Amino acid sequence: MSAIRFDSLVKQYGKQAAVNNLSATIQAGRITGFLGPNGAGKSTSLRCLVGLAKPTSGSAKILDRDYRELENPLTQVGTVLDSRGFHPSLSGRKNLQIVAASAGISDSRVDEVLELVELTQAAKKRMKNYSLGMKQRLSLAGAILGNPQILILDEPANGLDPAGIAWLRKFLRAMADQGKTILVSSHQLAEMQNTVDDVIIINRGQLIASGSIKDVIGEGTLEDAFLRLTEGAN
Ligand SMILES: Nc1ncnc2c1ncn2[C@@H]1O[C@H](COP(=O)(O)OP(=O)(O)OP(=O)(O)O)[C@@H](O)[C@H]1O
Ligand SMILES: [Mg+2]
């Protein structure tokens, strides 16, 4: 059984293929960077994976199933996608308590995850008064509430300052060390180079490389590899 698998995934919007025949398997217990420039099709692929977009053809499966077929998905897959909705006028803790209640998760677990993302001090603050970095941490807290084995994160580093990025890196590594499978997208190649074990690189909806970061980048940087791999394609 694979943790996450794209199989000839196509997502067409009108005449444009946002994702064009993407096949890739994500290895369990590792951090996989899902990389590519703006508009490459990363978010669309991840949205297909969690049932927010319907594939035109092919499939995107979690644990060999469609997301909507998973029982109590919060305990199997944690997601951070831009569409995630929290109530701005409620506190961070209250927001998490609402999500927790919907999945039969205890309030004590809410306090535990707030501690894990280092938001305990700000737990009672209204979410609308959170900084961007605090909102990202709250989203991550929501993703790990059900202690899932799989995390799917769309640009979780967006808006984080260097300290926040370093924190996120440590956080993801700690999760992977617990055996969790993490798929994390980013258009910031340099930043991901030190974070991930494996990479899937896409451009214009198509796969251009996948494998361990060592195998894909060789001697240079991830940016070098990306430019080399897309040379002539643009
Ligand atoms: N709902 C939609 N309707 C029409 N076109 C869409 C829709 N969602 C995405 N697209 C198009 O699909 C392409 C891929 O977009 P997507 O958001 O998946 O890229 P991305 O890799 O996540 O980019 P970014 O790094 O900017 O987040 C883009 O050309 C975008 O305009
Ligand atoms: Mg995106």
Q: What's the CATH class of the domain at 1-71 and 188-234, please?
A: Alpha Beta
Query: What ligands are attached or bound here?
Result: adenosine-5'-triphosphate, magnesium ion
Q: Uncertain runs with pLDDT below 50, 5 residues or more?
A: none
**Class per helix and strand makeup:** alpha/beta
Q: Report the total helices.
A: 8
Question: What is the gyration radius calculated from CA atoms?
Answer: 18 Å
Order of helices and strands: EEEHEEHHHEHEHEEHH
Give the strand content.
Answer: 25-35%
Arithmetic mean of pLDDT = 93
Helix content: 25-40%
Query: Largest sheet, if any?
Result: 6 strands, mixed
Widest sheet: strand order? 5-6-7-3-8-9
The coarse silhouette is globular
By CATH's scheme, which homologous superfamily of the domain at 1-71 and 188-234 applies? Answer: P-loop containing nucleotide triphosphate hydrolases
What is the straight-line distance between the termini?
36 Å
What's the CATH architecture of the domain at 1-71 and 188-234? 3-Layer(aba) Sandwich
CATH topology of the domain at 1-71 and 188-234: Rossmann fold
| Number of β-strand runs | 9
GO molecular function: ATP binding; ATP hydrolysis activity
Family: Belongs to the ABC transporter superfamily.
InterPro entries: AAA+_ATPase, ABC_transporter-like_ATP-bd, ABC_transporter-like_CS, P-loop_NTPase
Keywords: ATP-binding, Nucleotide-binding, Transport
